[in-house]
Amino acid sequence: MAAHPRRTVRGKALRLACWNADGVRGRKLELEHFLSRHSVDICPLSETFLNSGQAFRLANYVSHRTDRPTTGGGTAILVRRGIIHHSVPVPVLTRLEATAIQIMLAGRPVKVLPAYLSPSRPLIGADLDACFRDGVPVLIAGELNARHVDWNSRLSTRRGKLLLDYADGNSCLIFGLDSPTTNPCNKSATPDVLDIVITRDLQSSVHLTSCSALSSVISLYSSTLYVAHPSNTHRIDLMSGTLTGPTS
């Protein structure tokens, strides 16, 4: 189901930045600057465009990644050194691309996944089932190219309707902004809400807002998830939330 957020913020901040990079290697310096400027703890990435023969490392971060065997796509997640976490294997997915880690939020394990689904690939329920497996709260952030008016897209597509049906049948919440998250370089294309947050069993309410800056902001607290997106083409989403366990 689509969710109606509330504004309540409390708890020690864990900062996450989610970025659809559209190719990350050529934007490494931009990413490093953003992570440093905003003291980001965890950075999920989608559309990395990396392959297994290419190294991608950032100082002070541990990298977990899933490369597409062919060109394009790919997901990764960067975790600041000193944050207790571990990589979570994602079962073989048919169409969806995802990487997963598990952290502790408000004393509970939470699985965090960057996800990407190409507009040319179908949405398959079994792929989502695999991401929600393990019996822990889950947060998925990414571009699934699934439009629906319930999460503020301009229109509802077949994929959006399928995703909403899946959410309703599997106790998931879907969050979208009230302003576009994608402003295409192609001026003939119409800006729209493509980037969404999907949660299940997460003990947090969600507030979404937009900002006219390079970075988007998602603030995750023990009771609140606050999301803001920019009004430019290359968006970065920044999250903050409750962190338990030692950090450096």
Keywords:
248 residues, 12% helix, single chain, 3 helices, 15 strands, disordered C terminus, 7-stranded mixed sheet, Deoxyribonuclease I, Chain A, 8-stranded mixed sheet, mainly beta, 32% strand
Topology:
Blueprint: E1 15-20, H1 28-37, E2 42-46, E3 61-66, E4 75-80, E5 86-87, E6 97-98, E7 101-105, E8 108-116, H2 125-131, E9 138-143, H3 158-169, E10 173-175, E11 195-200, E12 205-210, E13 215-220, E14 224-229, E15 236-240
Parallel strand pairs: 1-2, 8-9, 12-14, 13-15
Antiparallel strand pairs: 1-15, 2-4, 3-4, 5-7, 6-8, 7-8, 9-11, 10-11, 13-14
* H and E string: EHEEEEEEEHEHEEEEEE
Summed over residues and divided by their number, the pLDDT gives a mean of 78
Q: Give the CATH topology.
A: Deoxyribonuclease I, Chain A
Determine the number of helices (DSSP H or I, runs of at least 4 residues): 3
Spatial gap, N to C terminus: 38 Å
Q: Which stretches of 5+ consecutive residues score pLDDT under 50? A: 4-11, 209-248
Categorize the overall geometry. globular
Number of E-state strands = 15
Classify the helix fraction into a percent range. Answer: 10-25%
Rounded to an integer in angstroms, the radius of gyration calculated over CA atoms is 16 Å
| CATH architecture label | 4-Layer Sandwich
The CATH H-level superfamily is Endonuclease/exonuclease/phosphatase
Biggest sheet details = 8 strands, mixed
